[in-house]
Design goal:
globular; six-stranded antiparallel beta sheet; about 0% helix; four-stranded antiparallel beta sheet; mainly beta; 28 strands; disordered N terminus
């Protein structure tokens, strides 16, 4: 995680109610916006070293306070005392990456303690690390699956009324989802949903997500070339694939009814270029079609994206930012521009969509 020019650091943010924001319309044109009660955030640096691309939040030691996990380290709240999960390594942000591209937390083995799920370098194995329940020493590592491709694997509620599951392609060939075996320390069960050599399945593919595209109540799996429709039995594959016009390489693809017309839309960013967009769903002769709308084009390398109701108005907002040096100091567009972290407030006005950038 890069915060500011010149120093890599791990940080948390604390929100308050003060300040002003800048607005962006559905077409990407800036709008002035200033009012009292805007939500602002205070940055708190908890580590000045580059540790991990991904982080997770969980009550690791069950003391009632939410802690932060970042690859080989977890930070104990409220003073952010670091504890090793695995031996700490030194990573060079100018010429390489960490060994944790994505990090999730979940009680994998059902013992009541949150464990760490780590997706390492694209194409390498996915693992989970077993919480030692307060005991010292490294966490025991278990292999989930031998290969996790694409740079945006999902940990999402794919199955209705169930806990989140992992979704990612493997062996640069097929998309799949995974659930623990009867023995959670064994390799997970892999449920293949695509044909071989499917789109979005290369080691360094960019962009995928989970959400109900067609409104049938069953979450689907999306990549930049189309979506796999979840059948009544999600364990029976392959799932039907519906191609659409190729989207630019992105990060997480979110599914949400942006304009409130009852049709789920898509939201994406730009991992190594410039642009954040929403894709308006239209009813086509052969199923959903999507029309691209710009949200923001003021910065590059928005290599992660999430939806959250930041202001508590019941409408989901978009959170994303710049992954400084996503390809080092000389790669991509504007690699040395200042890092930013933004949230985009979604406002609907008589069928029109407006985005207020904060």
């Amino acid at each position: 995680m890069r915060v500011g020019r010149g120093t890599f650091a791990m940080a948390v943010v604390v929100c308050g109610m003060i300040g002003a924001g800048m607005g962006v319309s559905a077409l990407g044109h800036p709008q002035s916006h200033s009012k009292r009660g805007d939500i602002m955030f205070k940055k708190v640096v908890i580590d000045t070293e580059f540790r991990s691309e991904g982080v997770a939040v969980a009550d690791v030691n069950r003391d009632g306070k939410m802690d932060i996990l970042a690859g080989n380290i977890w930070y104990e709240a409220p003073n952010w005392v670091p504890h090793e999960i695995e031996p700490v390594q030194k990573f060079d942000p100018a010429h390489g990456y960490s060994n944790c591209f994505l990090c999730f937390a979940a009680d994998v083995n059902g013992d009541g303690w949150p464990d760490e799920i780590v997706i390492g370098f694209p194409g390498d194995k996915a693992v989970w690390r077993e919480n030692p329940k307060g005991a010292p020493g490294p966490w025991k590592e278990h292999v989930i699956w031998r290969s996790a491709c694409n740079e945006s694997p999902a940990f999402a509620p794919l199955l209705r009324r169930h806990k989140p599951v992992l979704v990612f392609p493997f062996d640069e060939s097929q998309m799949a989802w995974y659930e623990p075996s009867a023995d959670p320390t064994a390799e997970f069960q892999c449920h293949v949903i695509s044909e071989p050599k499917a789109p979005g399945c290369a080691r360094f593919s960019h962009g995928m997500g989970v959400g109900d595209v067609n409104g049938d109540g069953r979450p689907d799996v999306i990549c930049t070339a189309g979506w796999w429709e979840q059948p009544k039995d999600p364990r029976q594959g392959p799932w039907p694939f519906h191609p659409f016009k190729q989207m630019p390489d992105c990060a997480q693809i979110a599914v949400y009814d942006v304009n409130g017309d009852g049709l789920p839309d898509l939201i994406s960013s730009s991992a190594h270029n410039i642009g954040i967009w929403w894709w308006e769903q239209k009813k086509g002769p052969d199923g959903p079609e999507f029309v691209q709308h710009l949200i923001d084009d003021s910065f590059s390398q928005s290599h992660s994206l999430v939806l959250a109701d930041i202001n508590g108005d019941g409408v989901m907002d978009v959170v994303t930012g710049k992954r400084f040096w996503a390809h080092g100091p000389d790669g991509d567009v504007q690699p040395n521009a200042p890092a930013v972290l933004n949230w985009y407030e979604l406002r609907r006005d008589h069928g029109q969509v407006h985005w207020i950038k904060h």
